[in-house]
């Protein structure tokens, strides 16, 4: 019963919140419209048959979010110093391959957003059969350091969140 | 200095900075040398224009600029995706 | 409350955060001009699209919440929206560039 009404609870919650934020008020009429949107639009998604995301472990989600926030600030600073030419030593940029164990689509999508949103690393291509990810790194000092960063810091948590 | 003077001049300075950023992005868009550089310049131009309009909303105190910024952001996204697709395949819709 | 009734400290805070974000966006655009190769340049606009955008959006949310005297968080939607879309455009653009370079036989790009 509840499954029929709410096929994607997180999507419905997100739509509800977005609607209220856009209308900018919490009067009875707006809440009612937001409820209608939150209940009707996920029914359309049913036709697309997306995989269930199955998010686990809220603690890991919070930890990942805090890592992400810290890393965005840190790499913004790093790339800004590179652009403004404050770095004396020779800088090399290049492509690296990262072998990934993560196979879940949603996990990979989140990893792509994290990797690309931190300035200095760019997700280029992911090969599903071999699980190999091609990255471009702006400041490539040691290839293994970047692989350890992606695998140890993000992939481990993503494997907890999307088992 | 009153609060409105601080906002007027301070946000004006931020707008000047963003305008300069737009000019640099436009330079890369016109200069190239390759098509992907131009698309990247266009994307940056869209982003900076969106930020400029958000700041303009605060400076003028008119809330409607929010919608304008949202629309520019969406247009920038679709335009860049379509252009990137075109660079890859030579066709936007397959 | 109108913008002129904002307390002075709030006005200065908003201006400082907005100028900081604008400077980051400018740094990104400077990188677009000064970096030598396309694959280096593609990293530059991310500065404005992440921290630069976030600071301006947060300052805007603070401004509207204070002037209107209620929680006005609609600007954060722009932040969420850009966080989700910017990686998509960057990844597609990088893939297009890699594809074009592979077709032309550029040695810098690793083969498939």
TrEMBL record, chain A:
Protein name: Multicomponent K+:H+ antiporter subunit E
Subcellular location: Cell membrane
One Pfam assignment: MNHE
GO molecular function, one term: monoatomic cation transmembrane transporter activity
Keywords: Cell membrane, Membrane, Transmembrane, Transmembrane helix
Membrane topology: Multi-pass membrane protein
Gene Ontology cellular-component terms listed: plasma membrane
Record-stated family: Belongs to the CPA3 antiporters (TC 2.A.63) subunit E family.
NCBIfam families per the UniProt record, alphabetical: PRK08965.1-4
The keyword tRNA processing is annotated on this UniProt entry: no
UniProtKB/TrEMBL annotation, chain B:
Membrane-traversing stretches: 6-27, 39-58, 64-88
GO molecular function, one term: sodium:proton antiporter activity
A cellular component annotation (GO) from this entry: plasma membrane
Location, primary (coarse class): membrane
Membrane topology (UniProt): Multi-pass membrane protein
Keywords: Cell membrane, Membrane, Transmembrane, Transmembrane helix, Transport
Domain of life of the source: Bacteria
Subcellular location, record wording: Cell membrane
Family that this chain belongs to: Belongs to the CPA3 antiporters (TC 2.A.63) subunit F family.
NCBIfam families: PRK06161.1
Protein name according to UniProt: Multicomponent K+:H+ antiporter subunit F
From TrEMBL, chain C:
InterPro entries: PhaG_MnhG_YufB
Pfam families xrefs: PhaG_MnhG_YufB
UniProtKB keywords: Membrane, Transmembrane, Transmembrane helix
GO molecular function: sodium:proton antiporter activity
Keyword flag Cell membrane: no
Positions of transmembrane segments: 6-35, 47-64, 76-94
PANTHER family on file: ANTIPORTER SUBUNIT MNHG2-RELATED
Protein known as: Multicomponent K+:H+ antiporter subunit G
Organism for this UniProt entry: Brevundimonas bullata
């Amino acid at each position: 019963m509840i499954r029929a009404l709410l096929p994607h609870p997180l999507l419905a919650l997100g739509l509800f919140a977005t609607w209220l934020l856009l209308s900018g008020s919490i009067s009875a009429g707006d809440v009612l419209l937001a409820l209608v949107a939150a209940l009707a639009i996920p029914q359309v998604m049913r036709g697309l048959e997306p995989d269930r995301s199955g998010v686990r472990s809220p603690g890991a989600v919070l930890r990942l979010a805090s890592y992400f926030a810290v890393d965005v600030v840190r790499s913004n600073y790093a790339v800004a110093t590179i652009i403004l030419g404050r770095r004396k030593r020779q800088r090399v940029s290049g492509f690296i391959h990262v072998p990934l164990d993560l196979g879940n689509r949603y996990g990979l999508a989140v990893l792509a957003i994290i990797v690309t949103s931190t300035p200095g690393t760019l997700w280029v291509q992911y090969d599903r059969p071999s699980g190999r990810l091609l990255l471009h790194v702006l400041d490539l000092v040691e290839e293994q350091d970047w692989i350890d960063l992606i695998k140890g810091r993000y992939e481990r948590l993503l494997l907890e969140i999307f088992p | 200095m009153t609060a409105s003077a601080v906002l007027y001049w301070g946000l004006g300075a931020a707008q000047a900075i963003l305008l300069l950023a737009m000019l640099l992005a436009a330079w890369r868009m016109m200069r190239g040398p390759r098509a992907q550089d131009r698309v990247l310049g266009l994307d940056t131009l869209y982003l900076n224009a969106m930020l400029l309009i958000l700041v303009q909303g605060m400076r003028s105190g008119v809330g409607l600029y929010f919608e304008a910024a949202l629309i520019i952001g969406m247009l920038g996204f679709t335009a860049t995706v379509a252009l990137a697709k075109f660079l890859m395949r030579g066709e936007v819709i397959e | 409350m109108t913008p002129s009734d904002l307390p002075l400290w709030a006005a200065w805070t908003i201006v400082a955060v907005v100028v900081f974000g604008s400077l980051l966006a400018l740094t990104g655009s400077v990188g677009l001009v000064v970096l030598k190769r396309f694959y280096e340049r593609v990293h530059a606009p991310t500065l404005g699209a992440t921290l630069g955008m976030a600071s301006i959006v947060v300052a805007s949310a603070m401004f509207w919440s204070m002037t209107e005297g209620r929680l006005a968080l609609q600007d954060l939607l722009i932040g969420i929206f850009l966080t989700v879309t910017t990686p998509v455009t960057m990844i597609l653009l990088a893939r297009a560039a890699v594809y074009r370079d592979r077709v032309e036989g550029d040695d810098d790009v690793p083969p498939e």
